[in-house]
Amino acid sequence: METIRFTKNEAAARTIAAYYDTPPMLYVHSFGCQQNVNDGEKIKGVLTDIGFGLAARPEDADLIVFNTCAVREHAEQRVFGNVGALKGLKEANPKLLIAVSGCMAQQKEIVEKFKKHYPFVDIVFGVNGIDTLPAGVEIAHADQVVEICDNPATAFKEKKDSSLTVGLNLLKNGGGDAFVSAGSTGALLSAATLLVKRVKGIRRAAMAPVVPTGKGGAVLIDCGATAECTPEYLLQFAFMGSYYAEHVMGRPEPRVGLLNIGAEPSKGTDLQREAYQLLKKAGDEGRINFAGNVEAREAVYGEVDVIVTDGYSGNIFLKTMEGTGGFLAKELKAMFKKSLVTKLGALCVKDGIAHFKKLLDSGEVGGTALVGISKPVIKAHGSSDDYAIKNAIRQAASFAASGIIEDITENIDHMRLERTGAAAE
Q1: Cα(265)–Cα(278) distance, rounded to whole angstroms?
Q2: For residue 222, is the peptide bond before it cis, meaning its omega torsion is within 30 degrees of 0?
Q3: What stretches of 291-385 show up as alpha helix (H) in DSSP?
Q4: How far apart, in whole angstroms, are the C-alpha atoms of residue 39 and residue 43?
Q5: What count of Cα atoms within 13 Å lies in the side-chain half-sphere of residue 167?
Q6: What pLDDT, on a 0 to 100 scale, did the predictor assign at position 2?
Q7: E strands, 146-278, where?
Q8: What's the half-sphere exposure (Cβ side, CA atoms, 13 Å) at 6?
Q9: Distance between CA atoms of residues 191 and 205, nearest Å
Q10: How many other C-beta atoms are found inside a 10 Å radius of the C-beta of residue 286?
Q11: How far apart are CA 188 and CA 375, in angstroms?
């Protein structure tokens, strides 16, 4: 699969042709100074190169671009007035794309205003890099979509031109160092396992989100990839989670805890009791820093850096944390809005409230690492905004540079149980 630059870009042209039934039309209007007019001409040039024609009126366009200026007097009011007038066109034609570019689009407060008051605007971008993507960024053509209704186990085979399959094949063949997706979790896990493959010797890949705790967060492994586990799976999760906490989160000698209903070694089901002995042995040998069983309450307090569990229990733990956080945030908001006095109180602690919201925002982390795959894969939340995707990419870059996959590969013999006869692979 070829990858190419944005300028005079055949892949982008094919995508445009696949998206529209007829050749699409472009309308560009520039506000303000001569420089903005020149930038508007650049935008026209880039988009006509990939298949757009030029429309004389916004009513005839499939893509409307307002190129803005923040220098001339009353420019902002004119732009907002003109953008507001496009709402009716968007309602009549939901496929219409509306973009705002230029100086105004580089001001954070203006971007936030567009998000809040003009949600029908699809794209907001600045004046830098109009005629090319940043160095190192390329586009690979993918004209199929893995839908939520598709079978996650077979979607990547049935839709070979989806971004999921195209991207993972690029990763597999050296076309990238990491892969980030906000699509179907099941489809991503299946495709990563079967296309990119697990590290040799790893029985199951695990999903390892970083959850907020009283001491700066902990790796929860697994949170849903494998609902039914064996003690060996949990042993491998403990090693992989420990490497992730050390190399990606920067925690030297991370404390590893086994999620259980009590601290005593005899607690839990056969799975927890047998896994406890395996983790204890690894701890005694100095291969991991095993802190013993940990209850959910102590895990949230931050008693350990790695929370090891089966995917079923881990998913319940994760969703309970998310629900509790959302509930507390809602109750705090209602409490502070009760009266003028409580509103004044909210102003006094606004920095603390902002920190609390940031602590519970999954977008601050970016996504969930699929640990055990032979190359870095990150699952971003399906509702991720641009900030969350940026952090998911940052997380993927950290994952790729961490050396965690090499550590797993080098230590795989300490993470496997000896098997004989029919039980051996």
Answers
A1: 12
A2: yes
A3: 296-301, 311-336, 340-348, 350-360
A4: 6
A5: 24
A6: 33
A7: 179-181, 206-208, 210-211, 218-221, 255-259
A8: 13
A9: 12
A10: 8
A11: 13
Backbone angles phi, psi at 258, to 5 degrees: -95, 115
310: helix, strand or coil: coil
Q: Residue 44: what residue type?
A: K
Residue 260 to residue 316: CA distance in whole angstroms: 13
Q: Is the Cα dihedral 354, 359, 360, 366 positive or negative?
A: positive
Query: Cα dist. 87→19, 105, 122, 185 in Å?
Result: 22, 19, 12, 34
Q: In a 3-state reduction of DSSP, which class is residue 74?
A: coil
From residue 259, alpha-carbon distances to 167, 296, 298, 309 in Å are 35, 7, 10, 6
One-letter amino acid identity for 20? Y
Q: For strand 218-221 and strand 210-211, is the pairing parallel, antiparallel, or unpaired?
A: antiparallel
* Contact predicate 227/207, CB 8 Å: no
Phi, psi (deg, nearest 5) at residue 54? -105, 130
Decide: 304 and 255 in contact? Cβ < 8 Å.
yes
Q: Tokens at residue 150, please?
A: 């598709």
The model's pTM: 0.70
Per-residue pLDDT, 229: 96
Three-class DSSP category at 371: strand
Residue position matching structure tokens 């802190």: 291
**Strand-strand pairing, 255-259 and 306-308:** parallel
425 CB neighbour count, 10 Å cutoff = 6
Where helices occur in 99-203 by DSSP H, the ranges are 108-117, 155-158, 163-172, 185-191
Give Cα 112 to chain centroid, integer Å: 21
Q: Which of 255, 315, 259 is nearest to 283 (CA)?
A: 255
d(CA 185, CA 204): 15
Instruction: Spell out, as residue ranges, where the chain has pLDDT lower than 70.
Output: 1-21, 33-36, 70-75, 127-136, 419-425
